[in-house]
């Protein structure tokens, strides 16, 4: 890849104008990228141009500049290019930027299902406000949160993604929503969208130890490999069946409601049986008590009978 990178730097890309525009808007609050046409912006341009030539199907998509930006804070251009290629290929980030965006759509589906299961009150509030995950979470996932998170939190996200895989992004997304749930429940459509795309979403973690963000995300145990695999299979069944996501979610929610009703019925039966068991236990205790009293009475009668026989002799 090193030799390829040097070659790409000398070539022209059809995406150069678009890349230049995006580079000037990327991470401007960081010193390395704050200078117009400075060394940082030029390095970012070089890596993005090289990748657009390396993967002609993807070329350049908005959002990629935020993926590369944090890398260049920690490594050279050629190293950042290598890591970008690995993230796109080995970590399947590429599927977020291909024309079909198949991996992104699958991730958003998994996120919606986990969101509904883990935070049902907030999920239903979002649905009542006609807010879908594509309105806020797409950017989170495509940029590994770098478009929104303060850099001290971005570096933590990158560490976990590199160590555990891109699926860890789901845990971070659920963690942010859980932490802000109480506040989000009081907001309407416009305020929710504004809040989810503002730095206020991260105030809790930036005011404390940034590592707490990772610790909270690690506690989201619902995002297991097995669970994500089942949700991926479910997503593909949805696509094959021709049902749109909203309709399929309605079907699943109705099934959940039926199961909840059945569960309530079974719990009621269990409670009745427990009461019956309690009554029977009480009756058994009473019978044993009576039996012991009768046994004592019989013993006394036997003693009395022996005494009377002795006296008769």
From TrEMBL:
It comes from the Eukaryota. This is GTPase-activating protein. It comes from Spiromyces aspiralis. The gene is GYP5_1.
């Amino acid at each position: 890849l090193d030799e390829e990178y040097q070659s790409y730097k000398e070539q022209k890309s059809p995406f150069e104008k678009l890349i230049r525009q995006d580079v000037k808007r990327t991470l401007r609050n960081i010193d390395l990228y704050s200078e117009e046409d400075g060394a940082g912006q030029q390095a970012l341009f070089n890596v993005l141009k090289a990748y657009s030539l390396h993967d002609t199907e993807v070329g350049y998509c908005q959002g990629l500049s935020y993926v590369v930006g944090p890398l260049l804070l920690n490594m050279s251009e050629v190293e950042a290019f290598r890591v970008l290629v690995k993230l796109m290929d080995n970590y399947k980030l590429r599927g977020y930027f291909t024309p079909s965006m198949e991996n992104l759509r699958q991730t958003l589906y998994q996120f919606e299902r986990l969101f509904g299961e883990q935070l049902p009150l907030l999920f239903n509030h979002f649905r009542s406000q006609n807010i879908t995950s594509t309105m806020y979470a797409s950017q989170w996932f495509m940029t590994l949160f770098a478009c929104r998170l303060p850099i001290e939190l971005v570096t933590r996200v990158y560490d976990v993604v590199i160590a555990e895989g891109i699926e860890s992004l789901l845990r971070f997304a659920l963690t942010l929503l859980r932490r802000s749930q109480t506040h989000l429940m009081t907001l309407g459509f416009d305020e929710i969208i504004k809040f989810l795309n503002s730095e206020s979403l991260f105030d809790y973690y930036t005011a404390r130890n940034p590592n707490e963000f990772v610790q909270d995300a690690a506690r989201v145990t619902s995002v297991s490999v097995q669970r994500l695999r089942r949700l991926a299979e479910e997503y593909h069944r949805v696509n094959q069946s021709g049902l749109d996501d909203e309709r399929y979610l309605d079907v699943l929610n109705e099934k959940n409601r039926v199961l909840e009703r059945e569960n309530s019925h079974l719990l009621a039966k269990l409670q009745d049986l427990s009461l019956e068991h309690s009554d029977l236990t009480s009756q058994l205790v009473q019978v044993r008590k009576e039996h012991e009293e009768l046994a004592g009475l019989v013993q006394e009668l036997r003693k009395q009978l022996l005494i009377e026989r002795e006296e008769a002799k």
